[in-house]
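Lest this sound abstract, we let one protein speak, letters for residues, whole numbers for local backbone shapes, and leave readers to judge:
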Amino acid sequence: MTFTDVKTYFQANRGSAAGLPWHDAQPLTPAEQRAVRTSLQTFQRGEGTGGDHLLDLARQYGVPDYAAAMQLFIEEEEGHAAMLGRFMDQQHIPQLQTHWLHEVFRTLGRPLGLEHMVRVILTAEVVAAVYYRALRQATGSALLRGICRRILLDEEMHLVYHCVAIRQWSFGRGRLAKWLWRQFYRGLMAGTALVVYTASRRTFQAGGYSVGRFGAAIAAEYARLERMQQAGGTLALRQESELMDVMKHEPGITQATVPPPIERHAELVEASLPLRQAPLSLGRGAGGEA
């Protein structure tokens, strides 16, 4: 897989939220409001972080299609923030201008350059992947469940995109250096997960995630990403049916609550690039191709 492939996928995925049931203005119940209000505010602010510094670093990397894909990635994240914000407006949940957790991530992401910033973002994406599963299970709102579903599908390419980049940056690095950095980022992942669970525990608990089950879900997602970052590892974009299978085996998920597949996602996977056993380009030329 190359950065050209990723860019093509992001371009094809524009407007993917058009089919959401915005006409469903059913208010959240008081119990749902208590369960999701605070975490919605936190994650909505985090999705719309702005990416000027990140985009500048991506352009400095010198691979045009990597920078183009980064621009599209940032736009997609801002689209997620807009979807959540629109839902919050319907539910009379105020949007935050700032949040301490958001500021912490901004501070962590800046000091050590592009690779470190991408790894910090990847840590947040792993937590988000589990959060949106929990949020979806914590509500009966068809609209909010649809938003979570859409974000989960979009996050698949976000995870793969960052793993493609990390594989390139890790190429030729010594074993000791790789091991030390791996332990550092595992620690960052564990610490981030603990902080986020504590801050949003009402949503996780309402969605069926005890701290133990949440930790297991985070560990499974992060282990999958570590495998994708290794030389020779399969860069796999899970399709809708596979994501639903993951959800069925998590707490609180039953066959009745798992929705039918979104056909557009499967079409994008098939039309944009062959993601199963996809080759990795290690070059720095246009599009990241050797």
Observations:
- The chain has one domain: 3-13+30-272.
- The chain is about 70% helix and 0% strand.
- The CA atoms of residues 1 and 280 lie 5 Å apart.
